[in-house]
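Morning F.,

Quick status update on the modeling queue. The single chain you submitted on Monday has been processed. Sequence for confirmation:
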Amino acid sequence: MKAPFIWDSHSDQPYQLKDRAYKKRSRRANLRSLIKTVLIALFALPLSTLLIPFVRPRRVDTQAFFGMGADPLRESEATLEMLERLHIRQVLIRFGLWQMERLEEVAAFCARLEGSELSITIMQDREHIEDEALLRRDVETLFARLSPYARRFVVGNAINRAKWGLFGVDEYLRFARTVHSVRDAHFAGLELVGGSVIDFEYHATAHALLSPSAPRYDAVSALLYVDRRGAPENSQLGFSLQGKILLQRALMMLARRNVALYITEANWPISHTAPYAPTSEHECVSEAAYARYMVRYHLIALGTGGVNTVFWHQLIAPGYGLVDSRDGLRERSAFEAYRVMVSQLQGMRVVAFKTCKRRFELRCESASHTLRILWAFESYTPVLEADEQAYDLLGGPLKALHVYKDPIYIRKERR
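Structure tokens below.
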């Protein structure tokens, strides 16, 4: 990654572009792409909204639903141990094309993820966007080295942000087509995931999916952050997290992409962690709110039946991770909340997801037991059925039972 693009190692993303003249020239050079984005969105978004009632929930494999982002180049030993404790088998690693000199280190880490299903996000930079020969060479090297460990590669990251090197969706589509052509020529067994739009900017998603020049993605990715709206149930332009997932699925239906949907990044920034927080303090939340929002995000995504895997971003990060690494490694309460959530839900089948009067209930079942998960915006006391046992967010048994912002688990063994 070369100037004017500069990597921020605190928040694990590029800094905002400060060269305004360069940014303006690049935007002007991609004016045709920007116009195309507007025109496609004017057609696709209203029609997709009308299609939402026809989106049907899919059967979600809860063994594969919970995924975790991990950094192979920092705290690798602790990362492997923590993934094992969390019982996570879906792992996502981000690799920047400007990091080719560290490919062997990443490969060594991947080789140790035995028993995991590994996904690799290919992060772009301006040099590889502009130089197709360089892109082909390095992607072929990347595939050859990491394909023994990973069969799924996410093409691009945050494609609608100029600081990530792209100034129009058409630039991303050219980048993606080149990656697909390398795969088709030499690595036919690999799965390529595309789209990679960050936040609720579905005008870019519509262009990435519906353009005639878009490659045939094997699956679709989204960096579906909702942190700027606070709680995941809060709405943006009339869409809560649940609505955003359904609209994404409707766009995929319109594009005839009846494939898997992976949320490759989501989190909340944590208060008083600057400069590690990826946003300003205004958007940050307490560690307690982070834990409850994280669990509710997963429950909503699972309840929609529209998401195959949520990859939480990420395991160890001072500003937004389950573990704070500023002074040793400190597991936040979210780490235990995540572990409990996985232990309660892996292997379960979703039966129903109900929302009524700002009360939420996810019902699941397995051969051995049933599970109700409840939370609400106004406190109430639920009625327990015979032989039901209630547990709090961190897995502790509940004696005084009431439902509020922290989800509770109500379990009943089958006789």
